[in-house]
Amino acid sequence: MIKRDDGYTIVEVLIALVLLFLVLTPATFVLTKLLTTADIADSRNANTICINVAEKSLLGKDIRPSENEQIFNGRRYTIKQELTAYRNGLQLYSVTVSRHNRKLSELHHILGESEEGQ
Length: 118
Prior knowledge:
Layout: H1 10-59, E1 66-72, E2 75-85, E3 91-99, E4 102-111
Antiparallel strand pairs: 1-2, 2-3, 3-4
């Protein structure tokens, strides 16, 4: 019988693929869980920041456009506050929180004449 060493047999390739599948399947589940958990944390943090910034500005009557960064729970978020004209002389106050140029949370409030900042 002549033995050839030209490559792998189909059985060897199939065994290698099964072993690879057995190793990668649990790894994909773990990685998916980690990424999902990080996304949920980002959304929760962004909502908290958005509400806190809006409350502070509205209650302090310090409503003005601005853009700054804040570190919250070890993550850096960009906070943008805007004030735009709305209908009937009202103004629209918006707070947007993003991370890595991805919008995570947004809050809008219509300001009447008595609520407008200086």
